[in-house]
Design goal:
alpha+beta; 2 domains; 9 helices; HprK-related kinase A; kinase activity; kinase; transferase
Length: 286
């Protein structure tokens, strides 16, 4: 029976489960995380077998956080990715004092780039490429965590979520560690890429937002970069925010301050190499 507590910055997470696949997942992806003793636990997560007749003829896994079950069960062979999906939901919906929205965040020289996560945009592939091919530090692949007091972006370095063709693309990057593939999920074939060690070692270091780039993968020749107005960027970020409305005026002011400090662009590209060149053009970071 797995029962471990991990510091998955900036949170402390307790994980309990009888599934060997969840233990293997944590050992592969979270082996470098601190395991604090007697620390306050932010999220108490359990992954348990399904109930009823399903446990005999179609075994399932349930995700519980603080003894609440927010999701329908999934096939038991998806228990490990269910941990990642469930933790995403937990952070997005239960983080106290932070504004959280769907985006990848990376840092170089103290400045952060934000890549909002619209479906099919290629965010995660580009995120992994920036880490492995251009030396950016991963703060998060899925969740931008904004401190409304300091205006800084908080690191939450966790596995980069990949699906379908992006798995093989990222698997060819130098130093990439790809975990098990899970077939026939609601997202297709999914896998995860482990964060680099520097992301874990520097997880306590926030970054100042500097660039907001909306990536858009378009499988055709040509590439382009265009400016996005702050008004349009605010509307688009609002669509990706999980708790801005719940944060009320504090959340509104935090996003306004964020947009006041960043250059906003959209990039369209047909290959990873094109995307990297466009990001370098916008940020002036090699």
């Amino acid at each position: 029976m797995l029962d471990t507590t991990l510091r998955i910055a900036p949170f402390v997470v307790r994980v309990r489960s009888p599934f060997a696949s969840v233990l293997e997942h944590l050992e592969f992806f979270y082996r470098d995380c601190e395991k604090p003793r007697d620390a306050f636990v932010d999220f108490d997560i359990r992954l348990l077998p399904g109930r009823g007749a399903h446990r005999f003829w179609r075994p399932q896994a349930r995700f519980l956080v603080d003894d609440q079950n927010p999701f329908l069960p999934l096939p038991v062979n998806q228990a490990a990715p269910m941990f990642e999906w469930g933790l995403n939901w937990t952070i997005a919906s239960r983080s106290l004092g932070f504004v959280v929205f769907h985006a990848a965040v990376l840092e170089k020289n103290g400045n952060a780039i934000i890549l909002p996560g619209f479906p099919g945009a290629g965010k995660s592939t580009l995120c992994a490429a920036l880490c492995h091919l251009r030396g950016w530090r991963l703060l998060s692949d899925e969740l931008a965590i904004l401190d409304p007091v300091s205006g800084m972006l908080i690191a939450n370095p966790r596995p980069i979520s990949l699906k379908n063709t992006s798995i093989d693309i990222v698997g060819q990057f130098p130093g990439a560690r790809i975990g098990k593939r899970y077939l026939d999920t609601r997202k297709g074939t999914v896998a995860h890429a482990a964060p680099k060690l520097d992301a874990i070692e520097h997880a306590s270091e926030p970054a100042r937002p500097r660039w907001l780039i909306f990536p858009q993968f378009a499988p055709r020749e040509g590439r382009q970069v265009s400016r996005v107005s702050h008004a349009e960027a605010f509307a688009l970020i609002g669509e990706q925010s999980f708790n801005q409305e719940r944060m009320g005026e504090i959340g509104f002011r935090a996003l306004c301050a964020l947009l006041g400090n960043v250059d906003c662009h959209q990039i369209e590209y047909g290959s990873t190499s094109d995307a990297l060149e466009l990001v370098a053009q916008v940020t002036q970071q090699d």
